[in-house]
Amino acid sequence: MESLIKYVQDEFVSKKETPEFSAGDTITVYYEITEGQKTRTQFFRGVVIQKRGTGASQTFTIRKMSGTVGVERIFPINLPAIQKIEINKRGKVRRARIYYFRGLTGKKARIKEAKR
């Protein structure tokens, strides 16, 4: 059954070209918002906390600070509303999912830049 689902996803779901990024990277996601008949582009810039899933059903979570409140957003990698993904900074972390980042504030919440 799983192989059948994987086959359908690989054959019929169109994949978008996205840059390679991982947990700890700071990225900007530009996506389209529809308000009534008007559409506009909005961006969400933050640190990637995790990438989850494989293939067409892959998602990634981005966290940013809005004032003193942390805001997280989950994006499916094949979301049609995503226009582009920009990588601003490559981060050096030792985990694939950096949930500990939620508890850090101020200077402790800095991530070192990777030399790639």
TrEMBL record:
Domain of life, per lineage: Bacteria
Keyword Protein transport: no
InterPro entries xrefs: Ribosomal_bL19, Ribosomal_bL19_sf, Translation_prot_SH3-like_sf
Pfam family, one: Ribosomal_L19
TM spans (from-to): none
GO cellular component, one term: ribosome
Keyword Secreted belongs to the record: no
Family per record: Belongs to the bacterial ribosomal protein bL19 family.
UniProt protein name: Large ribosomal subunit protein bL19
Organism: Autumnicola musiva
